[in-house]
Write a structure and sequence with these properties.
Layout (H helix, E strand, L loop, with lengths): L7 E2 L7 E4 L24 E3 L8 E4 L2 E6 L8 E2 L4 E2 L24 E6 L5 E2 L3 E6 L5 H14 L10 E5 L12 H15 L3 E8 L7 H6 L9 E5 H4 L2 H19 L4 E5 L4 E6 L10 H14 L3 E4 L10 H4 L5 H20 L10 H5 L5 H9 L7 E5 L9 E5 L5 H10 L4 E6 L12 E5 L2 H6 L6 E2 L2 H4 L4 H16 L5 H5 L16
Parallel strand pairs: 10-11, 10-12, 12-13, 15-16, 15-19, 16-18, 17-18, 19-20, 20-21
Antiparallel strand pairs: 1-2, 2-3, 3-6, 4-5, 5-7, 8-9, 8-14
Helix pairs in contact: 1-5, 2-11, 6-14
Length: about 500
């Protein structure tokens, strides 16, 4: 007979609020002796003591905002009485640096070894477009491959993926936006989950094909082709020529076979979307354990979504391996403050309406939960969006909080696996990189079981430890990296989730 799970949790002795783990009726008992004054929905916050106007509100032992009105013990704490307030923190570069002990026994997975030393978890052929104007033709080519069915003769190839987007022209040719798109396209061309790339352009766009291929060899294996629709002679001739080229590339791709590879060849993008009040209690810290395990095995994990670590960045800078790494993260935060201001926005336009319905109130609260995905490993490096990751370990890549865009950057940076936690029930997938989705609570997992790969809600309902759940996630990473399909792959996701970050004017 096991004890019933707690109904309210106080996450840190400093906290003056608790989180409801079940719907609470008025007069429900609370830790510390108070009782609820009103109905509190699960995932939402309840005051464990009286909080005066202007006083800080604490969760995780960190400030998540200030009371904007008197809050009585037992009262609901949310957007009607909790606001941002001054959230300046001591970045203390490297103050909490603690190296992880390397794993004593090395795990492995079965992957595709590429000519540049990377290892893929999938074996796709990609049709990468330089501009929106070639997107439809790229889709026509992929549809023709499916219609003719000849890919069935190549069972070792996972498919042909058209990588289409909405930019590449109507933009400046020498600014930050251009450089960001350039890095993104080049990064996808080199991602190890592609066995070959056909680069397809229109011909007259700003993002010129000769510039992309002239900056350096796109693929070390040489399984790379390119053409423009204008030069090839229009839509039908481009489709026919592309089909012939893909047949040639498939002959090369079919020779790739899965072979054992150490976990040091895994690069996992860490994401959360549709977060709720459970995210920082279950799925995110469990993913943090899995992240630490990967780092202990020599692997790489990438945390991103800069607007969603805002106010919690000090927890990362304090783990920096060197002061300049911590400063690089602070510099990105300052860039974002300027970026949002000059575009008429603000950093606290997050959480989203769905996040708030799930119990999150301020970006500070959301960020503290989001940072938990990064575990406890030292922060080894900070990278720009889509910049190649060259440092193993736990690293940070700058990106928007918009999930498809952030994942696009991580894949361009080299991620061959994505881990995505969700409390509201996000559905997504990211070809060519498989996405493992982690549910934060059992009710949503049961409701959306066809979309969720792991239920982290049993940390609450069944008393499963965060450490054990992290180990379960790590083991799933190895199986998926070796070929086991994720739920999003089985459903066919990945056709519309390539979303480059558009910076600058559209002209």
């Amino acid at each position: 007979m096991t004890n019933a799970p707690p109904r309210v949790i106080r996450l840190n002795p400093m906290d003056n609020i608790g989180v409801a783990l079940a719907d609470l009726e008025p007069a429900s008992a609370l830790p510390g002796g108070a009782a609820t004054l009103e109905q509190i929905k699960r995932g939402h916050k309840v005051a464990l003591e009286a909080i005066a106007p202007g006083a800080p509100v604490y969760r995780y032992g960190q400030m998540i905002g200030v009371a904007t009105a008197q809050i009585l013990a037992g009262g609901h704490v949310h957007s009607h009485n909790l606001g941002m307030g001054d959230h300046r923190q001591d970045h203390a570069f490297g103050a909490d640096f603690r190296a992880l002990v390397p794993a004593q026994t090395q795990s492995s997975f079965m992957g595709y070894h590429r000519a540049d030393g990377q290892v893929g978890t999938r074996n796709y052929l990609g049709i990468l477009t330089s501009v929106n104007c070639s997107g439809s033709v790229a889709r026509f080519v992929a549809e023709a491959v499916d219609r003719e069915g000849w890919l069935a003769d190549y069972p070792g190839i996972d498919g042909v993926v058209p990588i289409v987007h909405g930019t590449g022209c109507g933009m400046a040719g020498n600014d930050e936006g251009y450089d960001t798109l350039f890095r993104t396209l080049a990064g996808y061309a080199r991602n190890p989950n592609f066995a070959g790339i056909l680069l397809l352009g229109l011909g007259c766009e700003v993002m010129q094909i000769p510039d992309l291929i002239g900056a350096g060899r796109m693929r070390a294996d040489g399984n790379f082709r390119y053409m423009t629709i204008q030069q090839t002679g229009g839509t039908r001739r481009t489709i026919a020529r592309s089909m012939a080229v893909l047949h040639e590339m498939a002959e090369v791709a079919r020779t790739a076979e899965r072979r054992p590879a150490p976990v040091s060849h895994l690069t996992v993008g860490l994401q959360c979307g549709g977060s709720d009040g459970y995210s920082g209690i279950t799925a995110n810290p469990a993913l943090g354990v899995a992240s630490d395990l990967l780092v202990q095995h020599g692997g790489t994990t990438i945390l991103s979504e800069t607007p969603e670590i805002y106010g919690a960045e000090h927890l990362l800078t304090r783990r920096a391996v060197r002061p300049e790494v911590g400063q690089a993260l602070v510099d990105r935060i300052l860039w974002w403050e300027d970026y949002t201001a000059r575009n008429g926005g603000e950093m606290n336009n997050n959480p989203s309406p769905g996040n708030k319905r799930g119990g999150l109130t301020t970006i500070l609260e959301k960020s503290l939960g989001a940072v938990a995905k990064g575990g406890t490993a030292p922060l080894a490096g900070v990278y720009r969006f889509a910049e190649p990751i060259t440092t193993p370990g736990f690293v940070y890549m700058d990106s928007p909080g918009y999930d498809p865009c952030s994942v696009t950057g991580q894949i361009a940076s080299g991620a061959n696996l994505i881990a995505f936690t969700t409390g509201r029930g996000s559905v997504s997938g990211y070809k060519p990189t498989p996405c493992v989705k982690l549910a934060t609570h059992s009710e949503m997992y049961d409701r959306m079981a066809e979309d969720m790969d792991i239920n982290c809600g049993d940390i609450i309902t069944d008393g499963v430890s965060v450490e054990d759940k992290g180990g379960e996630i790590f083991e799933l990473f190895l199986r998926v990296a070796s070929g086991e399909k994720t739920k999003s792959e089985e459903l066919g996701f990945g056709g519309v989730e390539f979303v480059p970050w558009q910076i600058g004017a559209v002209m």
